[in-house]
Amino acid sequence: MTSPYHHSDGEMLLMSGFKKQMLYISLISLFVVACLFGEIISFYGEFSHYSSVTAVQRGIKPKKVIVNSVSKQRHSRVMCLDSEECSAQNSNLQQPLRPPREPTVDITSSKTRLSTSSSDVRDKDGNLCELSDPSYQTKTSAPSTCNVIHELGFDLARFRYLAKGAFKMAWDMEYFDEDGNEKHYVMKTAVLGKIKSSAKQLGDNTRDALIMERAGRAPNSHEANVLPMYQYCAITALVPFASRQPLDKYLKSGKIISAREMYHLAVQAARGLYQMQAYKDGMATYAHADVKPPQFLVFDPPQDSEEDFPLLQLNDFNRGRYIKRSVNNKEPCAFQMCGVHHKGSTYRSPEEYKDCADQSAAIDVFSLGSVFFFLLSNGLKPYFQSSYNDAVKDILHGRLPELPDSSDYKEYLYYSNDKADFAIERSKHPLFIALQDVMKQCWSFKPEDRPTSLEVVQMLEENLLKLSKIRNV
């Protein structure tokens, strides 16, 4: 016969085992919660500087009337697609030219001290430096339209891969408006394998969007030379579709452009740089730091334009730097870009090939001169005959590249005799000679000897005006 105490002992054992299991589960749960709490604290600390972004900038707009899946935001820069209201808002396409100002800071030698804090920059006398345009401090990002980006989705039936760079990739997006008309836009986002949850990655993209939001204009005028942004969310932006590809591919298609088209493209490239640098009080407030032919997008001529040459717009601003000035004398303070590898590019200024050297907005002007060389040579990069290492040595010693002769066109661009002869004949055109002269000024070895982007625009436009009185250019 079973003892009455047998059942009670068994129940006690079962209860003891159950309590142990509950204890284990509780401990595991506490560990998981602690880990999650630590991750939240780390994430908040890393992105706390974005806490000043308003709800409107995050795309939170209650009681907003939705027009269609793309045309939602109606502020001054993020444009509503297919909207007359937005066209009216952006009718002023030309940035006023301000009086030129010569740079006075010699950045070939180190005169600026950079502390461990990126905001604590001092001039050569130890005075603090502040942003040349204080509005960059109060508005750190373009207005966000994440809801629109998410609603667009990523249906491969509507997307076509275009290209990718070191950190960005581009997709051709097919879109049908309310009338059923097919249109194309470009969705720029981060390379999928290089997405990082870091303040730097997000900061680069927000800076890129902010410059497009401030300086960009719809590609409907030859004076709108900075790529605009239609929609934006964190690492993704919706921008116009360049019907004629980037400038490097446009010229390498085998077509020899006329001296007239070449010069007008050069004028637009200079305007784009000036507009992007966003002058304030006579000085640039932003440096692109990566000016080269692939950064310029070529569009068809605007529909209402009487000119037949293409429209050019500058893009890709995520690598740039805000220009700061001394609180003491308001002169520009230099910045440094340490540990940057240029991957074979020969479009850069001498100071960019010295690690941690002082730099300024003048680096963009030198690179613009290299873009002029690309146009003058109909698609050849500077020092096309040399290896990368030899080219860098020449740049650092101030030895300038020479334009190609007839044999170079045949060897490097595979031109026929007739095409090579035409290219050489083009070099005798007054516009060709005028652009070559401006290019050499942009290539001044010392940064303080280079013209500003504003002065480059003025020189090119003055030459064009003078020559138009002599002949039809």
Structural features, described:
- With 473 residues, this protein is α+β, with helices and mostly antiparallel strands.
- Helices cover 37% and strands 12% of the residues.
- It has helices at residues 4-47, 84-89, 135-138, 146-152, 199-215, 247-251, 259-277, 362-376, 388-396, 406-412, 417-426, 430-442, 453-470; strands spanning 113-114, 121-122, 129-131, 159-164, 168-176, 182-190, 231-233, 236-240, 286-287, 296-299, 311-314, 321-322, 324-326, 332-333.
- The strands form 5 sheets. A 5-stranded antiparallel sheet has the order 4-5-6-8-7, covered by helices on one side. A 3-stranded antiparallel sheet has the order 3-13-14.
Topology:
Layout: H1 4-47, H2 84-89, E1 113-114, E2 121-122, E3 129-131, H3 135-138, H4 146-152, E4 159-164, E5 168-176, E6 182-190, H5 199-215, E7 231-233, E8 236-240, H6 247-251, H7 259-277, E9 286-287, E10 296-299, E11 311-314, E12 321-322, E13 324-326, E14 332-333, H8 362-376, H9 388-396, H10 406-412, H11 417-426, H12 430-442, H13 453-470
Antiparallel strand pairs: 1-2, 3-13, 4-5, 5-6, 6-8, 7-8, 9-12, 10-11, 13-14
Helix pairs in contact: 7-8, 7-13, 8-12, 10-11, 12-13
